[in-house]
Amino acid sequence: MQDCRILITRPEPENTLTCERVRAHGWTAVSLPMLDIAPLDNADQQALIRSQVFDIDTFDYVIFVSKNAARIACEWLDACWPMLPIGVHWIGIGEGTTNTLREEGVPALSNPGHTTEALLDWLKPAKMTNQKILIVRGLGGRPELGLKLEERGAKVSYLSLYERKKPHYHAQTFFMLPDINLIWVTSGESLSNLSEYVTLHTPEWKTLPILTPSIRVNQQAIEMGWINASCAQGADDNSLIKATEFHTGKQND
User: Fold this and answer.
1) Closest among 51, 149, 43 to 91, alpha carbons compared
2) 187 near 164, Cβ under 8 Å?
3) I need a labelling partner for 173 at 20 to 30 A (CA). Which of 57, 131, 187, 199 fits?
4) For the whole model, what pTM was predicted?
């Protein structure tokens, strides 16, 4: 395959950065975000966030579920804490999330496997009893992580920093796109939004190869009718690039 035209569906601002990396590898990046990220901004929401961030030193673990959670949280930490509190274990789910934290000076760890399910395997039940854990996420995030940690005896709280919204696209948006060879999706919600649009406007895309970030999302894709879904074993750029190199190598054999 001489050129690989990849549909990139990350929310901004990560989408633009990922497109730059894709182009640096000699591929064509086609940008079509499938999530809009809107930080919570009314006075009551911000007052609650500020109060929770000021209390962040009372937690044993702070877990960030996405790059957006990490990015927005770091802005709040800068505003509320001249120096980071000590004694807190900072954890990013996924390489991209962890790197975002480290770039902002937060000494975060990332669990092997880089998924929520892998994190639960990594955080041994015996170590979670009576541990105070703060999960930093968007409104209405997946409940599985918190519920499983509570089952292990942890005391779980949530810090919601943003809303996820489905972008609004017209049919013409899809008709104007170039031919696509490969699709990247980085979350189940992005996949769901993409699938709704594709069913309406470009159902033939369901036959295209699509890279997903985890076994869970890959199974979702199969159930939604994507017949050529593959798991990239991570939502970060490096994992998706490696999976794409494998895919393009197969195409060139």
Assistant:
1) 149
2) no
3) 187
4) 0.80
pLDDT category at 110 given cuts 50, 70, 90 is confident
What is the DSSP secondary-structure string of 203-241?
A: GGGGGS-EEESSHHHHHHHHHTT-TTEEE-S-SSHHHHH
H or E element that contains 90: strand 89-92
Cα–Cα distance, 200 to 121 (Å, whole number): 39
Element (H, E) at 63: strand 61-64
The percentage of the chain sitting over the pLDDT mark of 70, rounded to a whole number, equals 96
How far apart are the C-alpha atoms of 182 and 87, rounded to whole Å?
Answer: 44
Tokens of 215: 């076994």
Residues 6+ apart with CB under 8 A from 174: 197, 201, 202
Integer Cα distance of 114 and 216 in angstroms? 13
- Cα–chain-centroid distance for residue 157? 20
What Rg, from alpha-carbon coordinates, does the chain have? 19
The vertex-142 CA angle with 186 and 161, nearest 5°, equals 85
Cβ neighbours for 223, distance < 8 A, ≥ 6 positions apart: none
